[in-house]
Design goal:
13-stranded mixed beta sheet; Aminopeptidase; 2 domains; single chain
Length: 354
Amino acid sequence: MMVPLSKKTIRELYPTDILFQTEYWAKVKHRLGWKPYAFNIGTDFAANDMLVLAKSLGGGIAAAYVPQGPEFEPDTEHYGLYLEALSESIAGQMGSEVAFIRYDLPWKSPYADEILEDPYRDVPDDRVRELRMNFGTTRWNLKKAPVDMTFADTYRIDVGDSEDAILARMKPKTRYNIGLAHRKGVRVRAVSADQLPVFYDLYLETARRNNLFVSDYRYFSALFSARVHHGDAPEIVLLMAEHDQDILAGAILTITAQGAFFLHGASSNAKRNLMGSHALHWEAIRYAKSRGCRSYDMGAVSPGRISDHSFYGLYRFKTGFGGGIAHRTGSWDYPIRENVYTAFRNWEKLRNDQ
């Protein structure tokens, strides 16, 4: 199989509901030190293209990253064959400094139907997944990344119906908690980017409580500053749930033509009995509806009812809102310079284990 590529400008990227494949996202990452590239894929240029980000690792070495792409999804049994051919084309276009290519695939997980039938089932271990992905390839070179760059399993809600219909699909306890927050005086409002420092403090509080990886403030600043200089960017919304003078929870949403996406969230250690996070997500649903969205993606959950999974708590919380889980294939690597890739992979594993 061959997958020809041709370079084009970032401005020529096609419109998409995948935030991470937009010109706007290229500008965000450029502000953070990444170099963006855009390519048409194949010969049918009317449909398929791709944003690729390059990051220097020092010493004349770089990594290439395809965030939530490519959007074009081949047949499941051809995932590996397609990625192998695409990787060879990317390597030919981007030069010898690229040590490996990482894909954060938006494609449906090959195990999605099995997990749907048995919600207590997790995906197989990486070795089994690599065997399946590489079947039929020439090089058997695709490796499951140590960490998914974005979340492989997220919870989506259909927001096309009336508010009453959406509430009716929720679990009784979730509906009750939304009502409780309202009765106790919790209010949610969209605020300006001037409140970003307040959100970031809440974000740090959440990270400390849950032992999460922390992104720099400049990343959050870039989310809003890049949009100021790019009029066609997706809408970026900062929501805050408040009670009296206290901030209970916050969220950064992105709004595209068809859907809303919960990009980042945070919650306070104080007044958790007031259900600020329930109020926040209910207002996010209402906001998405007001913008004509068809769906609201609430972000990460465990694949199913897997009690020892790090996102099981999020699964229990979000499944109360009456949607369904989207199971994606996750992040995969294609090493080009094996020794450099192995060293980076080992460093990444050590960092993630800390």
